[in-house]
Each structure stands twice: as structure tokens, then as C-alpha cells.
């Protein structure tokens, strides 16, 4: 029980990192990235391959971020002419391609058996101390990334992203290199999602294709939507609320004892979908709505 709380807080910090990746890509730039689980997997596998080849763990985290940024650039360049629904469909397909490749390229990813024995920056034999240290590290990483994204959002660069979100044609007419800004935003978001994947793989010490289902993307979109997809504080708050609800709903069996385990699991997933619909209907701006900024003097 003592390790349960730091475990949940670590997962919440990782989910918060994923939600923050949506702030820069979706909330600020207006690009709907339904391939979040794919970038999550890219980061996890890049970390696993780097760490297994002898790369130090801190450097392996950077390798995962670099891999996520490169893949994000490739996806961006391949979808330059796509917007809204079409971009969402392509990125969703990308996530499935990553999962299928990870399932079949046994020589590289271990196939459906996955990769086990991934290293961590702390000694796992410490038990509770290991979980507490990793929780602190993941929380600090989430805080650092959040500060960077918030600073970028308030900068002139961030104002250009919002101009692209509102109308990229007008932004282009105003002389802004829209393609470059979209690529930069997508690379930053992809690197953030890849870092989350690397931290997850390092923490649980095992990764497999089944861990990167599209349901993760739905969870993170719910978190970002509930908290506020254009603000870092909203994405982080939404992620922690999501994890709190998912964990609390595990105990539905104590409240409704006549339901089977399978029925309780289905009810949990239904509650997530219903929550997403209700948030989109009654609070589309989220808990922390985006504020209209005054023009600088």
C-alpha cells in the first residue's frame, strides 16, 4: 500500500507530460494529433533500444526525445496539406502503424513479447525509496517541461502559433512561415510525448505493443479537454484528475457488489467516454480557459 501512492503519482506525472504535448500541438497550433499513443511508443522503444545497447539512462532519455522529434517532423512534412479531420485520421493511422510494426519486427522490438529488464536511474531493490525517487524525478520533469511550454506560449513564437490556429492563410499572408512553425510545434509536442514514453518504460521496466493502445490517446484528450487544452496548468490538472478518477473507479466493486469484474471494467471505460462527451458539451474550454492576451506595448 505504501508504494501505491507514489506509483499513482508517477503515472499521473507521465500522463501530464502527454497532456502537455497536446497543449503546444492542439491547444496552441490547432493540429489534432490522434497519434499520441504512437509517439508515446516511439519514445519508449527508443529508450529501450538505447539503454539496452549500453547508453547511460539519462542520455537514453535524450535519445528518446530526439527520436520523437524526428518522427514528429516526418509526420508533419507528410501531412502539410491536411487539416482538422484529415490530419486527425492520418495521425491515428500513424499510431496504429507504430503498434503493428512493434508487434511484427521481432528482431528489433521483441514482437508481442516486448522488451523487459529496462534500466532506471535508481536501484529498484530500494523498494519504496525507488518509487518515491522516480515520482520526484517524473514530477520535476513534468514541471520543467511545463515551464518551458508556458514560456514559449507567452513568447512571440507562441502568438504566431495561435495565429496559425485561427487562420493559417492570414498568418501566411502576414509573412509568417506557417510550415516551419507547424513543424517546430509538432516536433516539440512529439519530443514531450516521447519523453513520457521513455519515463514509463524506465519505470515499469517492460514495454510491449499492447501497452500503447489508442485508448491512451482518448484518456489524454479527455484530460486536456477537461483541464483546458491551451494552458499547461489545465493539461496538468486534467491529467491528475483523470488518474484520480481511473483509480477511484477501481473500487466500484465495493459499491456495486453484484457486478462482475468484466462489467466493472466496461463501466469504467464507459464513464470515461461519457465524461468526454459531457466536458465537450458543457465546458468546451476546460477548467482553466484560455485568456485573451493584450497586445504588447
List the defining traits of the structure above:
2 strands; mainly alpha; 1% strand; single chain; globular; two-stranded antiparallel sheet; 13 helices; 297 residues
Structure description:
This protein is mainly α and 297 residues long. The protein has one domain. 72% of the residues lie in helices and 1% in strands. The protein has 13 helices and 2 strands; from the N terminus they run H-H-H-H-H-E-H-H-H-H-E-H-H-H-H. A two-stranded antiparallel ribbon has the order 1-2. The longest helix is centred in the middle third of the chain and has 27 residues. The protein starts with a helix and ends in a 15-residue tail after the last helix. The mean pLDDT is 89.
Provide a compact summary of the structure.
This protein has helices spanning about 5-25, 35-50, 55-80, 85-105, 105-110, 130-155, 155-165, 170-175, 180-205, 215-225, 230-250, 250-255, 260-280, and strands at about 115, 205.
Break the fold down into its secondary structure elements and pairings.
Elements: H1 4-27, H2 36-52, H3 57-78, H4 85-104, H5 106-109, E1 115-116, H6 128-154, H7 156-166, H8 168-173, H9 178-204, E2 206-207, H10 215-227, H11 232-248, H12 252-255, H13 261-282
Antiparallel strand pairs: 1-2
Helix pairs in contact: 1-6, 1-9, 1-10, 1-11, 2-3, 2-4, 2-9, 3-9, 7-9, 10-11, 10-13
